[in-house]
Write a structure and sequence with these properties.
- 39% of the residues lie in helices and 22% in strands.
- The chain is of the alpha+beta class and 550 residues long.
- Strands 1, 2, 3, 4 and 9 form a five-stranded mixed β-sheet that branches. Strands 11-10-20-19-18 form a five-stranded antiparallel β-sheet, with helices on both faces.
- Helix 4 crosses helix 5, helix 4 packs antiparallel against helix 6 and helix 14 packs across helix 19.
- The chain is elongated.
- The termini are far apart.
- The model has no long low-confidence stretch (mean pLDDT 89).
Length: 550
């Protein structure tokens, strides 16, 4: 009997020692391994990744429209430690395994070997967005150490629409990081804080904040469709469009073509990631005559009815400039400043600038914001350049009067013309729906704004193309020659611009359309004006804006 009790005591003692050994082995000797295993599993499952804040557009009813959000995508990843252990058991080489995987996951064999040969590594992402075919092939191989799981990645439901404004998220380094556009500018707000495994305990992530933009998705889509059609129709290099609410500075649409798909940004030309609406300057051409007239009228030097006699040309500093239609039309003779805007007479703009005086003219350009940033909440904004006028030459002021020799950004230009539309105040352009309208400064009086608006309406009525029945439309064209960069003078290529707002009696929106280097160098009246007409008609119908001219 005693030997049986001793045997039981011995057996239980041995079992107890075995359990102690196993616990020691797990908690002490292999603790690092299992902790790294847990971390790898948590990382692969996405549990530790902070959900990035969503980005929303709005519509005319203030309904939220998702424009960017995190979505589950299937991925393929490897645990190199486990792969190497399995290879040791099977006797198969890493090279053989890499050759099996390479055609499935589209990674070169040598690169794949490096990934799965890493020492003390428990997680290597192989495919970020795995296709159904890739998943099925991996399942067929049934390789230990190679897994399929879901993880959160950024998704843009409208693909290329608003890509310049939104930017994209780069997750190639593991963490989601905003690149370009709103994703970059508001990255800290959107990112949140990732979770972690600390002392065997999972600390949950803190989600990022959501963002609601002033962009109206319906106007945005139509605006981008319009500019894409325009670029393709005229074989142009590029095109941009901005729609703004002049009373508040809210940006309702902003887009350019060519654009890119932020869901597959790696397949796009990196040059297309920059936003031309805020990151590119150009000489605006005759649309700038509106600023010249505003400066002259507001300073009391001219009125819309001031007259002068046009001879078709003007000479200063041994250089002669002519009207754009001098060879076909000849001199206009005695005309008013309103006629200058109606017919876009270059020498008329020069007359207005000379009546105003160079110092006053320059100071108004500064007041309108052409030498400073608008501070729109987007990354990489550049400012216009009017430094050419600091030389003080008459010819430089003369060409600036009709928009050559000075450079602006589209966002600067539409902000300046918005000041005419809203009664004389320069507003900060805003893209966050929660931001309150911010007045930067008053640049011209209400009377001046009204007078220039009336001149713009007259120009539309005389030229007909932009006119819409029963609505008063204010607008102005600009056809500017492109400078010969690296040389002197100008090329025979042009940039077309049209800026207009409606209804002119109480503007609800302003539109800028810009077309870069259209084939054959057509006038703006042939290209961007019809496009403006169609987009303006769409917005009037969309908002159901009542006619103001019955």
């Amino acid at each position: 009997m005693k030997w049986r009790i001793k045997s039981l005591i011995f057996a239980f003692g041995a079992l107890y020692l075995f359990l102690i050994f196993c616990l020691y082995n797990l908690q002490i000797q292999k603790s690092t391994y299992y902790l790294s295993k847990v971390e790898a599993q948590e990382e692969a499952s996405g549990v530790l990744q902070a959900p990035r804040g969503d980005i929303y557009f709005t519509d005319k009813n203030n309904a939220f429209v998702p424009a960017a959000f995190d979505k589950d995508f299937p991925m393929i990843y490897a645990d190199p430690k486990e792969v190497q252990q399995e290879i040791q058991k099977s006797g198969e080489s890493i090279e053989t395994l890499a050759k099996k995987l390479s055609p499935i996951i589209n990674i070169a064999t040598d690169q794949l070997q490096k990934k799965i040969s890493k020492q003390n590594d428990s997680y290597e992402l192989l495919v970020s967005k795995a296709s159904t075919e890739q998943i099925n092939e991996i399942k067929k191989l049934n390789l230990k150490g190679v897994y399929i799981s879901d993880h959160l990645l950024r998704f843009y439901p409208f693909n290329g629409i608003s890509s310049h404004l939104l930017g994209f998220v780069d997750s190639s380094q593991g963490a989601e990081t905003g690149r370009y556009g709103a994703e970059l500018y508001f990255n800290d707000l959107l990112s949140g804080k990732d979770g972690k495994v600390e002392n065997g305990r999972v600390i949950p992530p803190q989600p990022g904040d959501d963002l609601t933009l002033t962009i109206d998705q319906n106007i945005q889509a139509e605006a981008e469709r319009t500019v894409k059609k325009l670029v393709e129709q005229y074989g142009a290099e590029a095109g941009s469009v901005i729609v703004e609410e002049p009373a508040t500075g809210k940006i309702l649409a902003m887009g350019s073509f060519p654009n890119f798909d932020p869901n597959n940004y790696s397949k796009s030309n990196i040059a297309n990631f920059l936003n031309p609406a805020v990151q590119a300057v150009y000489e605006p051409g005759s649309v700038f005559k509106l600023i010249t007239m505003a400066a002259g009228i507001d300073s009391g030097k001219i009125t819309p009815d001031t007259t002068y006699t046009d001879t078709g040309s003007f000479t200063a500093n041994n250089m002669t400039i002519t009207n754009w239609d001098y060879t076909t039309h000849g001199p206009y003779g005695r005309v008013t400043m309103t006629n200058v805007i109606e017919h876009s007479i270059n020498t008329g703009a020069v007359f207005a600038e000379r009546q105003t005086g160079p110092d006053i003219f320059y100071n108004y350009l500064v007041k309108f914001g052409f030498s400073q940033l608008t501070n729109i909440a987007l990354p990489g904004e550049v400012k216009g350049n009017i430094n050419n006028l600091k030389k003080g030459q008459d010819i430089d002021f003369a060409t600036a009067a009709y928009g050559q020799g000075v450079a602006v950004t589209p966002i600067e230009l539409i902000s300046a013309i918005s000041a005419i539309a809203n009664g004389g105040t320069l507003m900060k352009p805003i893209i966050l729906s929660d931001d309150k309208p911010q007045v930067i400064k008053r640049v011209i009086s209400q009377a001046t704004a009204k007078a220039v608006t009336k001149m713009m309406v007259s120009a539309v009525e005389k030229n007909v193309i932009a006119a819409i029945p029963n609505y008063s439309i204010a607008g102005k064209t600009g056809t500017a020659f492109v400078p010969n960069f690296g040389g002197k003078g100008y090329t025979d290529q042009v940039i077309n611009t049209y800026v207009g707002f409606a209804p002119a009696s109480s503007p609800k929106f302003i539109v800028l359309i810009k077309l870069d280097k259209p084939y054959g160098a057509p006038l703006a009246g042939q290209s961007v004006v019809p496009a403006f007409h169609d987009l303006t008609q769409f917005i009037l119908n969309y908002y159901n804006i009542a006619p103001d001219k019955l």
